[in-house]
Amino acid sequence: MKDTTHDDLARKTWMSLLARAPEGRAAALLDAAQARPAFTWLRAPEIGTTMVRGRAGGTGAPFNLGEMTVTRCALTLSTGEVGHAYVQGRRKGCAEAAALVDAMMQTDAGPVLRASVLDPLDAEMTAAKATRAGKAAATKVDFFTMVRGED
After folding, report:
1. Residue 96 CB neighbour total at 10 angstroms
2. What value does the CA radius of gyration of the chain take, rounded to a whole number of Å?
3. Domain spans of the chain?
4. Nearest CA to 118 among 5, 19, 7?
5. In 3-state terms, what secondary structure has residue 114?
6. Residue pair 19/85 in contact by the 8 Å Cβ criterion
7. CA distance 122 to 100
8. Which of 65, 102, 127, 135 shows the greatest Cβ crowding within 10 Å of its Cβ?
9. Maximum separation of any 2 CA atoms in the chain, in Å
10. By three-state DSSP, how is residue 77 classified?
11. 51-62 residue pLDDT tens
């Protein structure tokens, strides 16, 4: 079994965050943070589908849930770092921005990008999740049985 290093875990975290980012948000934060560097496509953004798998109850046997549209790409910066991206939907611009952030996080610009792109994305998505959970909790119905005194 391969040991997961701290760097692998950090990269998985930011790749997950970029993949789930709302449309155009990662690109907007990247453009506000700094100018996009020069890069070369290893794989230009392309749209396809992937099979989504699920598990009954979260722990049961896996089954094919259905297909989902994804956009993927890969690029290399002029300094040699390689960035990859897979994003849900038909969003070539989002995939490009995510791959750029991935590649740039591997450079000295990583801490700046974490503070200006990843941390705001994480905070926005956490707030949206809390808002959604609050709305769902407001519709919760508690069923209870009152004890009747006719025993």
Report:
1. 24
2. 21
3. 6-123
4. 19
5. helix
6. yes
7. 18
8. 102
9. 83
10. strand
11. 999 998 878 899
Contact yes or no for 15/106 (Cβ under 8 A): no
3-state secondary structure (DSSP) of residue 88: strand
Q: Is 112 exposed, middle or buried (0-12, 13-18, 19+ CB in 10 A)?
A: middle
Residue 75 has pLDDT above 70, yes or no: yes
Q: Regarding beta strands 39-55 and 62-77, do their DSSP bridges make them parallel or antiparallel, or are they unpaired? A: antiparallel
What strands lie across the sheet with 62-77, from one edge to the other? 39-55, 62-77, 82-88
pLDDT at 150 exceeding the cut of 70: no
**Nearest-angstrom CA–CA distance, 22 and 39:** 24
Beta bridge partners of 74: 43, 84
